[in-house]
Amino acid sequence: MTVWFFLVPWILVGIGVIFVAFHGGGAGARQAYLTRGSRFFQISMIVIYLGVGLAVPAIILSARHDAQGATSKLQTKSASSSLQKGKTLFRQTCASCHTLAAVNARGVTGPDLDRIGLSNTAASVKRIESAIRIGGTGQRRMPAGVLQGPNAVAVAQFVAAVAGQ
Ligand code: HEC
Fold it and tell me: For the residues of 70-91, what is the DSSP string, one character each?
């Protein structure tokens, strides 16, 4: 949508150039503009005024709509604040051992969480919750229970939402 903000001025410049050309260069255009003599000129000015008058509000309205659409993606305040909490907790408790591009984590002790087939599904959330509870796959290489309860859930949901992207 923002492309229109760049396009519209250039379209107007283009219309101006065409106008000048139609009236035989700068002097002719100035003449036409000052005297408002030609019917073509009057009509084209009306068309331009109407066009801009309709186009600008329309662009602003639809741009606002786009912006609203963008924020509603991670919808509901609680969902996004719990993801936010998961992100913070991940940075504090998991990032030292795991790589996760979404938070720029570069840990190498544990597997790269972008590359173990996690996706934004309930199954992945379960797998991560289980990894937190029992410590990875239970081979005692990852400490068990580094987070509990709602904190573990928040991190699991966050990781599932961003891993592998
Ligand atoms: C001390 C380092 C360390 C920390 C801290 C750590 N992990 Fe791990 N993690 C590992 C290691 C090592 C493995 C591989 C061990 C295994 O597969 O049993 C692993 C495995 C995993 C797996 C893969 C399990 C599977 O099913 O393949 C997930 C998911 C995971 N960790 C998530 C987390 C999350 C989320 C946190 C933060 C709450 C975290 N880890 C904190 C070291 C760590």
Answer: HHGGG-SHHHHHHHHHHHHHHH
